[in-house]
Amino acid sequence: MLTMTCTIKFSDGKELAGTVIADSPQGSYPVRYEGETDRWPTRIDRTRPATLQALFKDFAALTKSEFNLTTAGDYEIWAE
Amino acid sequence: MQFVRPTSWKAAVDKLGSKTPIGSALNSSEWAQVPIALRERAFFSSEVESIRFLQRSRDAIADFLGSAREILPNGNIALKVGSRAEFVKQMSELAIREGMGPLDAHDAGTIKDVTSEGRLGLIFDVQNQSAQDYTFWKQGMDPDVLNEFPAQRFIREREVKVPRPYHQLNERRVELKTNLEFWLSMNQDFGVPWGPWGYNSGMGVEDVDRDEAERLGLIQPGEKIEPAVKEFNDHLQASTQGLDEDMIAKLKESFGDQIEIDGDSIKWKGTEPAHEEEVIPTPQVDEEPEPTPAPLPVLEPTTTTIDEVLTQLDLDSDRRVTADDMTKLLDELKESEPMLESQVIKSVAGDKPSGIFEESRIRESVQEFLNFIPAKVARKLPKLEIKVVREYDSYGSYAPGGRFKLSTLLEGRPEKAKETIFHELMHWVHREGPQEYRTAIKKHFEERTAGERIRRLPGYSKGTNGKTDKWYEPYAGRIYSFEVTAEGLEIPTRYIEWLTFKPEEMAAHWNDPNFRETMKIVLKGLF
User: Fold this and answer.
1) Would the pLDDT of B212 be above 70?
2) Which residues pair with B208 in a beta bridge?
3) Nearest-by-Cβ selection for A79 from B396, B511, B515
4) Chain A residues with CB inside 8 Å of B424's CB?
């Protein structure tokens, strides 16, 4: 399983994090949000790791915030 | 430093061309007893005695190899659509003219019938794969490549009905490329340390880099290993030396005046003695340039281009886009008169298609994909043969000629199934479609990854190597072990999955300039 956590650190020092655990790059998986969830503009509650990263990066660019990424583990299966 | 030096396909063509057509009534098990040095230099087929037929077959395959080949995900050489069929048609006609039908009428149309599609297709596939795998092996023996990728993993590329037990036992085993004893033991049908690893074996190899080989204890840090070319040539030489009288008598009886035997010097008539010559040419640093592939179909002029669409929707700038912008783009990308799935699907078969894999569901997803593909492009692609299989190591895979597999693991997972179908169908468009598209993807891959080292892709298992660049998903940078030069084979496939995302998700990706740059190139395949 691959676990990806994206974090945004806003200019006021507060943070928003989103985590997905996925067995594959294909498909969507529940997102667990933590921190400043009220500031998060989307209602996406399921997505794939690559898209979670894109959403967080996009929002970080929009809000001129700091983006951080951590991943652990590997996918188990995918489309070749 | 260039880690992977492309090996000229001329080597494969030359190797095939150097084989002497040998007609004989020997069957395959009797051929297996002929010394490997002779077998390696003969172009033969079980129980085929017509030299004329064999010579025409050899020349036809060499011509195809030299002019119209492409590389496939499963390691075979993919010839341009129609080439294999053309070979089968031509050789079948010749075989019939030569009166080469089966002796037993019950064998008509079976693998024993040299006029049949099955038998001719087998000849074509084995000879082509042998030429490709030999070229790959030769490249792997280049000292620089060997230093960087000293080992290889023995892998199952496709399921077969009756796997060989010694293959099953060694699936995913990693050994140094120079471990001839092991690799020869894996190829008991052909007796060479490269593939094919037997008739219909389903096996292949993939490169293992130095880091992994060191971790496995196969090589020490800083240790350099010598190519095994000379060792293999010595092995070939030994196969013709010291033959007993019975074997020599049998060779004379089987091959008549096609063979010359003078003491330990045994050769096909009109050729140099096999044991006095390096059967495997030493890799050259400066080889002749690759033959230019025959042109594939070129996109016809279109009335609208992707650039025009993006300009029209104000998407060709750094403006932040929204979900609405993506919805409009999706509408614009859809063809007004796409091909129908019934026009491109030859068959849907396999393990009890049901649920999400009901044939109708699969056809729906194919149609959704076709809605983005110009009919004039789809029309020229090979018909699709879709098979649902109980395969647990991937959701889907594509093989040449429009054949792709879907895993039953996708059952009940419609989102994954759709992404997978889009992914595999994009292989179909990219690999079988216009050459100019393929060239554009390759150029983009080379430009974006110049200077980057090949490494294991993050998030993927060992052996899944490539260049991560700034692809939105690392797999887009995958480089397969069979690629002579990296083509970016997974760029179109990974990026086209984006069309299945929610508009809001699509927008987040599009707002990334790196993603946008690649996606624009991928979308050109839809125009």
Assistant:
1) yes
2) B151
3) B396
4) 79
